[in-house]
Amino acid sequence: MNKDTEKKEEKSLPSEEDKSKDIITELGILTTGTDFESDVQYIDIIGNIEGHMVLPAENKTTKYEHVIPQLVAVEENPKLKGLLVILNTVGGDVEAGLALAEMISTLSKPTVSLVLGGGHSIGIPLATSTDYSFIAQTATMTLHPIRTNGLVITAETTFDYLRKTQERVVDFIERHSKADRKTVISLMNRTDNMPNDVGTILFGHEAVEIGIIDEVGGLSQALKKLRQEIEKNQKND
Q1: 107 with 73: CB under 8 angstroms?
Q2: Residues that are catalytic
Q3: Among residues 85, 92, 214, 217, which one has the least CA distance to residue 142?
Q4: Can you tell me the distance from the alpha carbon of 35 to that of 155, in angstroms, rounded to the nearest whole number?
Q5: What's the rounded Cα separation, in Å, for the pair 105 and 10?
Q6: pLDDT digits (tens, 9 = 90+) for 151-172
Q7: What is the average pLDDT score of the chain?
Q8: Hey, which residues does 40 pair with through a beta bridge?
Q9: By CB distance 3.0 to 4.6 Å, which of 8, 74, 103, 221 could disulfide with 217?
Q10: CA 38 distance to own-chain centroid
Q11: Residues 72, 55: contact at Cβ < 8 Å?
């Protein structure tokens, strides 16, 4: 191999900056690259949460298999001191959403969530999974019963499974927020709030009033709270 060939191969290798841009484009996350350094991991959960089934290409999705290694990195990487989760999701795969929510809730480092636009359906457990949660004044959250589509075997065991799945969601919200179980179930099953569906649409301040979310706020408030929790965590170590 001559020197000219070696130079061409060196030029063809992607730089660290290019790699960072690729990660931002593909996963929507910021990395601790040369252009941006932080001790906080930022993860956005947007569109449909995609689980075991691949959604159509025209759908904006968050693939849970992409988020899982990022959460592991938060726990394992000593350079990362905390996690900010930004949500604007319509919901999606219940199993995948709960899996991510459980992982976030069991991180040992400080975590804060911020709901922008919407945190609907399974997005609600994800929003409550962090140590502290914010919601934008104009954002909304939709509480509704678990549903399914496609071929359904109309047997009692099918409906029993759906009920059990809904219990898992309600249990998680109850454990990780200040919301009362009875209130959550009541709002899930309202028939007078949504014209073509069962459930309730909550605006930012309403989500705070019933205890699902801790506080109305935006990005600066969420980052300030996370920094405070990181500082407390470091003092306790």
Answers
A1: no
A2: 121, 144
A3: 92
A4: 57
A5: 43
A6: 666 667 766 777 788 899 999 9
A7: 85
A8: 82
A9: 221
A10: 20
A11: no
Token pair recorded at residue 220: 């600066």
Considering the entire predicted model, what is its pTM? 0.81
3-state SS string over the chain? CCHHHHHHHHHHCCCHHHHHHHHHHHHCCCCCCCCCCCCEEEEEEEEEEECCCCCCCCCCEEEHHHHHHHHHHHHHCCCCCEEEEEEEEEEECHHHHHHHHHHHHCCCCCEEEEEEEEECCCHHHHHHCCCEEEECCCCEEEECCCCCCCCCCCCHHHHHHHHHHHHHHHHHHHHHCCCCHHHHHHHHCCCCCCCCCCCEEEEHHHHHHCCCCCEECCHHHHHHHHHHHHHHHHHHC
Count other C-beta atoms under 10 Å from residue 94's C-beta.
21
Calculate the dihedral angle through the C-alpha atoms of 109, 216, 189, 92, rounding to the nearest 10 degrees: -50
* Domains in the chain: boundaries: 11-236
**pLDDT higher than 50, residue 34:** no
132: left (phi over 0), alpha (psi -120 to 50) or beta: beta
Total length of the chain: 237
Q: 11-236 belongs to which homologous superfamily?
A: 2-enoyl-CoA Hydratase; Chain A, domain 1 (3.90.226.10)
Tokens of 186: 């009541």
For tokens 């969530």, what's the residue?
A: 113
* Closest to 217 in 3D by CA, of 204, 231, 229: 204
